[in-house]
Amino acid sequence: MEGLIGKYVNYLEERKHLAFNTLQSYKRDIEQYIMYLHELSHNNIANTNKNTIINYLLYLQKKGRATSTISRNLASIRSFYQYLSKNKIIENDPTVELESPKVEKKLPQILSTQEVELLLEQPKCTDFKGYRDKAMLELLYATGIRVSELINLNISDINFDVGFVKCNKGNKERIIPIGSLALKALQNYTSKARKNMVKNNDEKALFVNVNGTRLTRQGFWKIIKQYKNQARIGKEITPHTLRHSFAAHLLENGADLRSIQEMLGHSDISSTQIYAQIARNRIKEVYKKTHPRA
Predict the structure, then answer these.
(1) In this structure, are 119 and 160 located in the same domain?
(2) Which residue in 41, 82, 177, 188 has a CA-CA distance of 20 to 30 Å to 17?
(3) Residues belonging to the active site
């Protein structure tokens, strides 16, 4: 069965164009499921059925796994069985009638405009790193792009004349406008810092580390954690927090959901509607605090 996992992961990578982290998540979930089957002496995936999967989900529940984790595992297993069925490795897909456990969606954490300002003020343009970090934080909040998209940007993806960034994900491309402050920070970084940081003139990466090569996801996590601590912001801040804040602040200031959906790159409007719920909750808070008869 281990050989099937490798073929399945290759299929996801080549046909579905999934991101590296998503691929690893699918692979990890399926490997754990296969290990469980081996413990039950199920050495042939074709001999598993609906009850096998239900018992595995109950097993995860007994181990204290969160509902969201169990739901994700079922999604991974369902995708695996669909692949096996499509390729005639099994006759019937046992996940067809299985329902995913209901997961209570938590509203994402967002920063207030004051907290965003405080965070963006932290990088000081006194050295190359300061110029780079200022540009990265400004660009994240100005465009709402994902951290994976940020670190994968090439310098050719920025149009300084018109003021937009081009993001590519698989075969999809989206164009997002860049505000004047973020554009200014990018111009300062590229003219005063990046050219001194790169060791090879052929380097295409927009944001580079001290070695002159493309910055990693882990490297950026450390950077944002450093500035969060410097700013003494009590909320937990991840790179995604700025993406959420970008969307919520746009909505609060009159942007429509469809435009926000397009800028965020959501394929389904339901993913964007969560920000409308955040806006409604904030209106309720303001009402309770300010209305004399609330």
Answers:
(1) yes
(2) 177
(3) 146, 169, 240, 243, 266, 275
